[in-house]
Design brief:
Length: 360
């Protein structure tokens, strides 16, 4: 089954009344020469849609997504113009729905009444944290209460909801990240995105970093915090749509992204860490029985089963998970079995010990 096609249209920083400490408006709002070549925003939107639909193939449904800014905080006339510009493709059945990202404090009944009839089905909230002290330090300009109110209003209007959060914000810590995930999971969003905070040159956070006021998370710390949040979201039935920022030229430029836990495959690192934990849990349970423990004359052979699509996650980045398993369980020899019927998020394990076989 082919994945849905999401057509992203970026309105960087626009509609946002605040400049958070981690935001560099110049970098984020800058347009490429190609974008400046269009006579109008509607013309640029049409070009983006046309480009993506050329490569649609059998992907279905198709969703137009207004990302990068505070969509519902734009002037009403501009919201109307952008939504109206999508309608020809919706009427022709080429685009099936619209989503947008926005700040929690700009979700109102009036703006939803405007947008819903045009096919808006999903609204993602830039929550970042559910700790009001952390939000104040980041100068977000909204509170956790705004997020709760926005979620309630979106659900009342029958819209799907998403939440976008950050790890590594000033004043936040491991426990705070967990509390944010727990508070959001209780609100029942349909999806979540988790991003590690990066230090962009020209932001106030960059000044804090250079003065020693802010110390970014290490990559390992960011992976660990994100892993815990993913576990909470998954446990509550919340789909985790993305982990980490997309690789862009800006992220590869040390003159623009000056510090922070950047990795082009951040999501893979998190999912690999989760799979390692799951494998260890299964192995530890198997080894509880004395008959299953390896002895000098009776070495245990352990088979880990995984869906072929998740093999790289089990192995870890540069096969570090396999090295860590060998170090943690020196009395075991490991082999991997690919099982198509297994869920891609799950691993199973069984031990072959002489004529005995037990598994989880």
């Amino acid at each position: 089954m082919a994945a849905p096609l999401v057509i992203p249209f970026f309105i960087p920083h626009q509609g946002c009344p605040h400049v958070c400490i981690f935001c560099n408006q110049r970098l984020i709002a800058g347009q490429t020469a190609k974008e400046r070549s269009f006579n109008s925003e509607a013309e640029r939107l049409s070009a983006v849609i046309h480009t993506y639909l050329q490569f649609k193939k059998n992907r279905d449904p198709v969703e137009l997504a207004f990302f990068g800014g505070n969509f519902l905080g734009l002037e009403t006339s501009r919201i109307f113009a952008l939504l109206k510009a999508v309608q020809p493709w919706i009427r022709q059945g080429q685009i099936h729905s619209i989503r947008c990202s926005t700040r929690p404090d700009t979700v109102t009944g009036q703006v939803l009444d405007l947008a819903r009839p045009f096919g808006l089905e999903t609204v993602e909230l830039g929550v970042q944290s559910m700790d009001d002290r952390v939000l104040a330090l980041a100068e977000r300009g909204h509170t956790s209460a705004d997020t709760r109110n926005a979620m309630a209003l979106l659900k009342k209007n029958g819209l799907k909801t998403g939440v976008q959060v950050m790890v590594g914000l000033p004043g936040d810590d491991d426990c705070g990240a967990v509390r944010t995930a727990q508070a959001l999971a209780e609100l029942g969003p349909d999806l979540a995105r988790i991003y590690p905070l990066l230090v962009l040159d020209g932001s106030r956070l960059a000044q804090w970093y250079r003065s020693g006021r802010y110390v970014p998370l290490s990559l390992d710390q960011a992976v660990d915090q994100t892993k815990k949040m993913v576990t909470i979201f998954r446990g509550a039935g919340v789909s985790v749509a993305r982990l980490g920022l997309q690789a862009t030229q800006m992220m590869e430029d040390a003159g623009q992204m000056i510090a922070g836990p950047w990795h082009p495959a951040f999501g893979h690192l998190v999912l690999s860490a989760l799979m390692f934990d799951q494998a260890c849990e299964k192995i530890d349970r198997l080894l509880q029985g004395p008959a299953k423990k390896g002895t000098p004359g009776n070495r245990c052979n352990l088979v880990i089963q995984v869906n072929p699509k998740s093999l790289s996650r089990l192995q870890g980045d540069r096969k570090t998970n396999l090295d860590r398993l060998a170090q943690r369980y020196p009395g075991l020899s490991f082999s991997i079995e690919r099982v198509e019927t297994l869920d891609s998020q799950q691993v199973h394990a069984h031990i072959l010990n002489g004529s005995n076989e037990d598994g989880l």
